[in-house]
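User:
Care to share a sequence and structure tokens?

Assistant:
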Amino acid sequence: MPVSVILDGAVTRHTPEWLFLSTGIRAVDHAVETFLSIDANDYWTAQHCMRLDCYMRGSPE
């Protein structure tokens, strides 16, 4: 079990752009898949809709 996490944007300096973009698309995929699931419930639907809204507000138009 990890004891600590280091969040430092500088460590991503050399990360290829395609990797960042593919990770973002995967996050959208998970959110859509969850709230469209036949097993979806109100709590998770609301959580993922809010998350998608955050993604959209954070993306360039």
